[in-house]
Amino acid sequence: MPELPEVETMCRGIRKIERLKIAKVFLPECLYRPISITPGIGQIQRALLGQRVDSITRLGKRVAINIGDHALFFQPKMTGLVSLESVPDPDHVRFEMHFKGRRSERLQFWDRRGLGTVAMFKQADIQQQLIDGKLGPDALVIEFSDFAQRLGKTRRPIKPALLDQKLVAGVGNLYASEMLHVARIAPQKPANTISKQKLRRLHEVMLEILNAAIEHEGSTLSDGTYRTAVNDPGSYQNHHLVYDCEGKVCATCQRETVLRIVQSQRATFYCPRCQK
DNA sequence: CATATGTCCTGAGAGC
DNA sequence: TGCTCTCAGGACATAT
Fold it and tell me: Which of A5, A8, A61, A62 is catalytic?
């Protein structure tokens, strides 16, 4: 479930590899099916060995390691983690990178279910390969006018619309439910029927919630999969108002019970009293 | 074009 | 206790 706050936390957690020289890149022995990696590991090794890491950046829900003319992208999807050798177990490490003279700072991509991907692109190709027609503006950066215009173009219910990375990049299932609750918008409401005033509030709440979640190093759910780069749980789950709260009394109105519905095969949590 | 559905994968938890 | 079954959801491919 890593969404923008969790991926941002991963980026911050591995930033100490900036400026280090790459000594080794390999796919560890793994009992499970090999990770999706583009192009092959051989080409990646040829391009990156001996190069220095310039910077760590985030593109939507991907971690990017920028290395000279190239960038290596990690897409954690459901259960992936990028960290410096403090993953939950050694069995699900599917990609590893070592640095010259730094035995204790080895980058690992850990992924229990293996749905994640690793991909290398030339810096010059990133726009065309990953952004154009595929990723909207980042949720932390998008201007309100752009946000309103994009959501105003779809008749889909607002909750699934928020999950569409082509509209806004970075929002996932958990934070979409949370932000609709605080903005007091029903998840079923068609996006193009929401008043400008409500959309303004939603935009504001999106920034507040994502930034607060980053402060708390993301949300670790009951399965415990998501960890920070030092293998600690995040703490934003303690601030959830609706996500995973089915049947609990709504923390906001203290009257109605939080409901769980399914939209586009995804769980949505909301309070029918607060969100009309 | 817009929108909906199926698929990938592993492990936790429910139910018997 | 141990088995089988369901479900979690990001994002892409394919269908409508």
Answer: A61
